[in-house]
């Protein structure tokens, strides 16, 4: 692309106001990190304007890069976003944000902030997907987290995949864990994060956003395809 594309940050969408602000903070940090870059916000569900609508506002002839503000690549990336991007010339889709070592480090930091200590069992809680590629993305993050943590690390899902977070917490206790901490591998507050309080853990970490590191991940995804 010879002209700098517009960055279209596309999140899932949420009715939770704190979640909306957390997602917006990521794109605000992107704007601060790269002044002059055109940055638009859009969604694949729940909120409007959705991705096809926003791409329709980019001037004809101007390139655009849709960066999924999603932690793994499943249906929304491979179908919803891909179809919207494919319907517009000079538009490409970047990779999802995860897996990424910076997300693993941030997830670990959130767990420690919530009270996780060496020896505690950690259940990484992800939203879940019926797409095996999205599940593989999450499992890569869990494996990377486990390499940095002195204690058992497992995974639980909010929907579509198994085990559930509650099942993973129960399994950790059955395996002998005296304390279990749920590490919320979710980008922002919302329905999935709200459910974690009832999973039976001793502590639940905050979602990843807001955090300035996320803006750099977004820009790296953008840069990886904007030069193609």
UniProtKB/TrEMBL annotation:
A Pfam family matched in the record: CbiX
Transmembrane intervals: none
Keywords: Lyase, Metal-binding
InterPro entries tied to this protein: CbiX-like, Sirohydro_Cobaltochel/CbiX
Protein name: Sirohydrochlorin ferrochelatase
Originating organism: Luteimicrobium album
């Amino acid at each position: 692309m010879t002209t700098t594309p517009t960055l279209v940050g596309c999140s899932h969408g949420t009715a939770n106001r704190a979640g909306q602000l957390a997602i917006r903070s990521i794109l605000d940090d992107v704007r601060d990190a790269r002044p002059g870059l055109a940055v638009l916000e859009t969604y694949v569900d729940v909120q409007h304007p959705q991705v096809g609508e926003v791409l329709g506002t980019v001037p004809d002839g101007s390139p655009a890069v849709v960066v999924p503000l999603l932690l793994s690549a499943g249906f929304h990336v491979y179908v919803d976003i891909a179809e919207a991007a494919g319907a517009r010339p000079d538009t490409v889709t970047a990779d999802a944000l995860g897996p990424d070592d910076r997300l693993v480090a941030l997830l670990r930091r959130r767990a420690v902030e919530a009270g996780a200590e060496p020896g505690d069992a950690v259940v990484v809680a992800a939203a879940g997907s019926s797409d095996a590629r999205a599940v593989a993305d999450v499992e890569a993050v869990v494996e990377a987290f486990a390499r940095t943590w002195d204690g058992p690390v497992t995974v639980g899902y909010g929907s579509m995949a198994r085990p559930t977070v509650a099942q993973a917490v129960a399994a950790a206790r059955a395996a002998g864990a005296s304390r279990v901490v749920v590490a919320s591998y979710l980008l922002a507050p919302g329905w999935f994060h709200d459910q974690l309080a009832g999973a039976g853990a001793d502590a639940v970490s905050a979602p990843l956003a807001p955090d300035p590191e996320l803006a750099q991940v977004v820009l790296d995804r953008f840069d990886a395809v904007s030069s193609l």
